[in-house]
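User: New here, please read:
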Amino acid sequence: MPAVATHSNEASARATGHPLLSVDNLSVTLSSPRGPVQAVLDVSYRIQAGRTLGVVGESGCGKTMTALALLGQLPATAERSGSIVFEGRDLSRISAEAMRGLLGDRLAMIYQEPMTSLNPVMPVGDQVAEVLVIHRGLTWPQAREAAVGLLAEVRIPAPRERGRSYPHELSGGMRQRVMIATALACRPTLLIADEPTTALDVTIQAQLLELMLELQERLGMAIQFISHNLAAVSEMADEIMVMYAGRIVERADAAALFAAPRHPYTVGLIGTIPDLARRRTRLPMIPGVVPNPARERQGCAFADRCPIAGPECREHEPELRPVATRHEAACFKAVV
């Protein structure tokens, strides 16, 4: 395997305390037959080197759209505004060529469904090797040998033989490990993991989460971990950002958020986590659905589903504000 390059920018971020990634007032607007749709609204956050930010919420809340905005992979009809600064560079201002140079190198992503992300007619070992050919200038023989080491690093048994396999010949867990190996090939400083354990059984999920934590500890990378699974996020995240209808509705250190959630939506999400100590015939659920972003609305987007909503909640949109030390919530009922 090739020698791992030192990351001077990461070292600088650790030394100065500057965040590796700074996102400010990020908004994404999509075109639709009914007019503009606000998929992401004024989202701001920071990720420090070596730390994990968990991003949680139901499908359609803007989690993945936020990640795609960082990577410049939005639909052609989408409009992005706001600032995205990664390692001191504003990603909203760099050229498409410069962005391609970052992706797979300093900035990498594990996509939600390996079967739609992996090339079905290319051996998985060659797909890992291709990243090293493009970004590190290795020859194909060098890159293929390095890919064997990367597949072994993510605990794929018989990596040389498995590297000759095609995606359909591997299990779901193995395909996801190939995706992780590909993403980590160039030792990125920021890894975005979008629902990396979806559709895997709980044993494989636990193995993959443990693997990601181990690799993070060894490589010192930051992770933006996107999931609707709060139990998985609780294992991974240092800080958690809860999104609803395109906005951040709560943000706090992981321990504080689970100990004392301040937004009713977060309370509802935590309440749906199975508890082995309490036997129930039926798991709790949050009634209703996420509002249609194409329709105009007034007030808090969660008001129609909220058990404590008052008149002010239906008339005004609450702002994200501090409710405790390093804890913010967008709720009129969250008492400071």
Summary: The longest strand covers residues 37-47. Residues 1-16 have pLDDT under 50 and may be disordered. The two ends are 53 Å apart (CA to CA).
